[in-house]
## 1
Amino acid sequence: MKTIHIFILFIIVAGAQLFIPASMIFKQETILETGTAFKFKTQPVDPSDPFKGKYIYLNYEVNSIASTDSSWVSGETMFLAIAKDSLGFVRATNAFRDNPKSGDYIKATVEWYDNNQNELRFSFPFNEFYMNETKAYDAEVAHRTAQNDTIPNNTYALVYVKDGEAVLDNVFINDVPIAQYVEYPQ
Amino acid sequence: MNSKLIKDLPELVEKDIISKEVALKIEQYYQSQTQDSPNKLFTVFGVLGSLLVGLGIILILAHNWDEFSRATKTIFAFLPLIIGQLFAGYSILKRKSATWHEASGTFLFFAVGSSIALVSQIYNIPGDFSSYLLTWVVLCLPLIYLLKSNAVAILCVVFATWYACIYGYGYMTSGQSPWLYLALIALVMPHYWQLLKRQSNGNITSIFNWILPLSIVIALGTFINRNEEFGLLMYVILVGLFYNIGKIPFFDDQKLRRNGYLIIGSLGTIGLLLFTSFNWIWDFDYERLFFNSQEFFISLVLFFITVGVLVYSSSKRWIKGLNLFHFVFILFTILFFIGMTNDLISTIAINLLVLALGLVTIKIGTDKFHFGILNYGLLIITSLVVCRFFDTDMSYVIKGLLFVSVGLGFFLTNYFMLKKQKSIANLKKINP
């Protein structure tokens, strides 16, 4: 094969290498710009990833919905219809197997069906918030300290939702972005 | 060693052992050889440097510089990737040396990984780690052929294996197998084939002779889902396959340390047989074994491939002396199915098989006057004795005597062989 042919093939490969991260960015930016913002009450803990760095793992308060349908299987994808309460916090209203035609909804994963409580347990795919390596553990501590305030849980994640896809924009403690809160606790 | 020889040359000339011309020729020969090696060394350091810089960049970016805006961080995500691509493109276009190809390929490999990781970090995209690794390897596989890079090929094999482990051994994906791993390895194969054809004795080829079988040994377990018992059979046949491949003269005629297939095959066979020589291993629930399972079919495919290699190499008269090791996988398969109805027969037969393998190895060692093989045979028998030490209700006296006799065996066989070797050497001296 001639050098120029190899080079053309290389350009195609290089294009693919650029395309994958670029398409990821494009998808996320679209949701951030045109999606609806919801607040998800959460509790962060601090693990780390070898390539992406430190993150806080977010345990959301909304993690179950009353359901009489016990045929849900663990690991199944579900569509969760959601609404906002008066303060902008998210509320799960219904669970579907196919995407609902109207209203806001997000894709979630079925954890298990709780036969005793007749509840469907689920988890969201946006449960990792990446933070500066020096701040991730402090964020976990800050959340725990902030819990002692008069308001019971004042940590929430701001999530933009569009057509079932969600982008986690930021995490707030007492309405202050968590990275800032860690530096200057209120 | 070469430099020692060159240093000794004046002395050898002085003592009239070699002539001046011969000394000159020897010196010239070694000098012409060393002219190549700085280039090789430079390549190795180039690759190592790129590897470290690439990994360093991943770590620096993983720090998460939250002072920067999302846009700035995004630029940083693409910067190493574009730099890597420019270097790689330049080395293709300008037909630079292998060093350029290898170093830029290695750097680009890590740049691809870091850019995907960083975008995930910026947008908090939670990681399905296995699909991240898969995307990474797929995006870099073409570089093996475009840059003709061995380093990228090695990285692809290592990361494909990592992918298989995360996918197949992971808790979330239990019951699934990383079939794409096979595709990834298959895509590296043409490169390996070229190496075998062009640089059969190269150091780089022997690295592949090791990492490919190792990768397959590591990844095979990810294809075992529910029928773990068949897993044993799969592994015994796989190491049998490696042994038979390693005995093909192409590999067998090389130095032993270059022949990963033979070493992994031989040690794997002995290890697995020692494991199955315990009676409790056979005490499993055969009613749970399904013959229409994935594990059974993989065993079947591996079995036929191994028989194919064995038959083909004996039809080509490649194998000088067939030994028991070649057939262990067939015997084990038979014993495995006998074990379904009678575990005692299988246990006893496996023990006898290990003993026989030990004796066969000792015999080969003495025939070839090879102390390494001889002692490997003795070691096999010792391991068998040690294993039986734990699960047999023998009196301590008998166990003790067993150990003493095996120990004496070590001394005596080595001693007699050494003596025989000396007498042969003496004979040669007398009648040269």
## 2
Amino acid sequence: MVDTLTGTPPVGWPESRKDRVWLALSRFRGAPLAAFWVLIVVILGLPVLLFLAVAFSPRLFAQGPEWFTLSGFSQAFTGTLLQGVVDSLFVGVMSALAATAVGFAIAWLVIRTDLPGRRVWTGVMFALLLAPSYLVALGWERLLEPSGVLDVAGFHLDGFRSLFYGPFGVIVVLSAKGVPFAFLAISGALRGLGEEFESAVRVHGGGPIAAARILVGLLAPAIWSALAIVFAESVSDFGVAATLANDAHFPVATYTLYNAVQAFPIQFPIAAAVGWILMGFVVLALFAQNRALRTRSYRVLSGRSRPARRLRLSPAARVTGLAAMVLVTVVGIGVPAFGAVSASLINGLGSLITSHGLTLANYGRVLSSASLRDPLVYSSQLAVVTATITVVLAAVSARVLSRRGSGVSARVLDMSLLAAVALPGIVFAAGYIFTFNLPLFSQLGIQLYGTTILLVVGYIATALPATSRVLLGSVSQVQESLAEAGRVHGGGPLAAWRRTVLPVLARPLVAAWVLVFAATLLELPMSQLLYPPGSPTVSVAIEHALMNYDFSGGTAMEVIAVLGALVVVGLAWGVFRLLAPPGWRRLGSVP
Amino acid sequence: MTGAPISAEAQAGHTVEIRGAVKRYGKTSVLAGVDLDIPAGRFLVLLGPSGSGKTTLARCLAGVERLDGGSIRFGSRLVSDGRHHLPPERRNLAMVFQDYALWPHLTALGNVSYALRRRRLPGEVAQRRAKDALEEVGLAVFANRYPHELSGGQQQRVALARAVVARPGLLLFDEPLSNLDADLRERLRVQIATIARDSEATVVYITHDQSEAFALADDIAVLDNGAVVQIGPPEQIYRQPATLFVARFTGSAGELLGRVLGFETGYATIDVAGRPLRVRCASQVVVGTAMRVLVRPAATRVLAEREVSDTAIPGTVVDVAYRGRGYEHVVACAGGSLAAVFDSTRRPRGSEVSVLLDPDGCVAYSESFDTDIVSITTPKGVEPARARAVPA
């Protein structure tokens, strides 16, 4: 059995020592999956579960005398803590309603009408999605605060300022952050909804309003999803809570939880009780969504659906539509960006000096001062490491989830990741502080608290659930037979994956890397609670600068960080376009 | 064509021995103890309905699925059992997938070249051999095209070239023609038969299409519910189906009910609606036993008006379809209904006709057991797949 062209026997035949090793190793086929599961439990499950358990049993973790108590909950429902819970519920409901209404309108304009600039508006939605909520809030604050940009420019909007520094402002910012979620949920459903349902109403005597009512009815699952997602995102938000809401003395639950963890002595049982309440809100939203849709079927997608035609807007409707889109863009991106950029260009903003001129000196200061520059470099390094490890783990998770016949393992992982996506970031962060501060870890010789490693692990745990879900769509679309063909035709497990599956997934993997990088670079809750002493991350450094009334330096750092993120995003895609083989680039590209 | 033809350097195929192969998905048993021997160089078709386990068996042979029990050996070498598993790339085989599984980021040439990596040939040689393989399937001019720039048939031929280019010891085909139209299917079937046999590899070909199986196979193994119910050359499977299931699955014009009037070696006379029908029946049956007679499509014809026969079954035409060379009728008879009853003349719906049946195309099974002629299947100790099929 010799290849007559080369005189060498074909690899793998007849039986070699390597084959015997393979046969022996094949007995441990479950080992890689078991290792993966240990990792998931350690970084996702354990910290949150232990933290939540302390709400009921402080003694179990040396946090109090009781083995079982509900005192954390009773305290969570009194005074400022109760106020925080009620406020969170209120802004959550209001933001969900407002964002869903606006998101629906935008989705309809973009998908179903000939409104000019539809791609631009879709791009605006993605930009809003990626903008951290604290940056949006800070942009507004820089404009409106006393001695802020508008004050310096001679516009004294005291009435609007007092309105914005309160629930109204918090709801506006959270709604603006919620709009892209609602848009994505509803536009996906709207895109798949054929024209025949509206046509059926019209041919049976219904007018445009009756057709619109049917349309809204058919989109009920997407609308409920939008409401649930925006509500969950709003009550879980920490960025607005730590900035605008805190500055406005408007307590919300995520910030009261943070305060409980930062208090001296630390009140973990109370923080955990607030964590339970926040999770309860999320579960409540999902339960309401489920209950609303339970008895009805909304299967409207079929291969026979005819794509809907775009509605031709009248000139007046077109102008109104464009004006509405510009307004959303201004509120969500324009004002915050203008606020940040203008504040970074004003000399001595926030200080007591009376003459303020335009200058680029703030940027020079950030780049030359170690205390302002180092956090940028540090966060960039952390973001690169986090993005790389997260993408690898997320690809493995997506593979486990999409694999044929992975059964219980996939279902448990699916539920864990879904729960982790819904879990407020601040609960995660508090869980990390709590768990890795436990005496057990120091007894085991594991000193992770206050280290960069724990911060990176925390970042990974925060990013992994959403990234896995993002990759799941692409990984599920890859036919199993591609990798199987790679193996059958001679490639080893890694080589076959690298040569047959990686090229197909390259684009989504780069996209996921870029998303994780940008999100980690500007991440707040995990950074706020876990940054190593003396090494603040960029978000923490911005907060510190603003707390010290260095508004110009803080906003300059903010602008540089956002620009830096955009440059890295551009670089990542540029490198992909330049270096990836032609076949890789063809996949997923629009001709 | 440049370079040596593929067949010129082909190596001997694997001898495959499957013993008690078991595979479960959760609580569902997909393979329930399959025993099968495939001599080197034979073309075996696994024939069975959806869910019978044929694809799972091929995937276990390929090594992309693991056995839960039993064993698979290539020659004397164990490649899989309940605890051990040699990965696919160490088995020296190739596979043509149902969905082709061409890698979309590679050109046709890139796809074919990939399979040569295990041979570790110098680049130039590998390139030449891949081009030869593409030429063999008539696609040399499309070497630089990506899969999505090729038609379904062309994609399938690239998959075929990729499978044979490295001269594997075992070639697996998983319903490779199921996504193609009828005309293309026939042309590709011929190409597969020629190229696969030229490669001298052992071939295992999966299909649920009995005509495809009969056309391609040296031997056919019929699977049902995860077990091999009959194995043998196509002629044996067609003429002597071991069970009613095999008979039905390999082509039936209909079934008639009757009772045994008499028996002589290999044949029984059955009373169907008062007419004595002579049909095949392997096992001894007692007079008066209730029987089910399965009728092959080719065994029927309408009796001409001037012909007379005591054994022809009377019936009424309920449907007629034009088939080019003549007409196929559906005839309702007293003992059952017969489809595909051929006649060169169109018989109008509702007309009375007599259907003449060829005894060798009718097989009888007792109503209580559907395994009456199980005795014609392989006796223990004999490996039927080694029997050379007689060309039809």
